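job 3f2a | input accepted
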Amino acid sequence: MKHGSSLRVADSNTTPVVGGKARAVSKSAKLANVCYDIRGPVLERAKQMEDEGQRIMKLNIGNVAHFGLMPPEEIVQDMIHNLPDTAGYTDSKGLFAPRKAIMHYSQEKGISGVTIDDIYLGNGASELIVMSMNALLNPGDEVLLPAPDYPLYTGAVALSGGTPVHYVCDEASDWMPDIADMRQKITPNTRAIVIINPNNPTGALYPREVLEQIVQLAREHQLIVFADEIYDKTLYDDAEHVSIASLADDVLFLTFNGLSKNYRACGYRSGWMIVSGEKRHARDYIEGLNMLASMRLCANTPGQLAIQTALGGYQSIKDLVAPGGRLRRQRDLAYELLTAIPGVTCVKPKAALYLFPRLDPKMYPIADDQQFILELLEAERVLLVQGTGFNWKSPDHFRVVFLPHEDDLREAIGRIARFLEGYRKRHGTA
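job 3f2a | predicted structure (430 res):
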């Protein structure tokens, strides 16, 4: 230390001081517009209640293993078998064999021109989403995001110095993106469009004609399309998923997927990103992606080794979503019970693991939906996420995860119904 410095060396029991005053340690200003209410303040209160010995029914997060939905046994056994050989770093983009399997999968989805070099493995798709925004955005750049959205995207854009701009998804049209609203919000600063298809939190599945309109917008304005397809196999009622990247080769696409949901392997943190389409004019951006992939060294190797077995093995997700399958039964039951509550309506999800019900504002005059969800938690010990946590504009929605077994769903939604009945009585709207 230089002589005359006002900074005193503190022992382990004191706070560093400057000029005799304690120096506050503040979070980065980059976090000012970043929030993730799926694991936010209400969850913290739920943890306190659990520490006090209360049992909380958690319908707040799609953590499938928590509800007894486990990965296929062959994936588990392959990881165990290969674990002794996973101590070293891999190539920064990932091992060859899983990337080759993803390349074949992209061909099955109709995405043309994908090579091994176009595929990046990550510690879940989440890492790659943040990385893709970090590599792209400068201050003032705008990204179009759905409302409601999965809040990681809004946070990743803001953290990367960009400006999130939310386009409306229309509940009256089964939560389809409002193309006119999307078009209206494009400015000279817009760099990209994000779509989440199948959608979290609404369970919407976008048909080909909607995707083609989004591609045309991207083409006209030279925008990148970021496509989150993590639920592309979690489909109900014989629905079919179309990868937007299969619809054009003159637009740049980044497609995200992984093992977390379709293969019930959230904790394996095994995701991937595919760069496709108009790559010729994106060489500098791709160089940035390569740089960031190298900086994190590599994705976890055991998770990488699960990919080839998962994609090439028996697709047990089909049994879960088929008529009579567990996820299909639970979706149907949750939808039936929720929509039976006075003043609650809901678009029945065609995909994914969630419902996004609406509360009639005349019957439920909610000013602060986070406070509303907190009151529900404390009264009935049921944990949900409020709609504004997904960047929805009004305090009149909440997300329900329908992963619990049917008896638990009946119990949890019964508690929600009881709370809502009491709410109507307190506000004279019953």
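job 3f2a | The first helix runs from residue 41 to 51.
job 3f2a | closed
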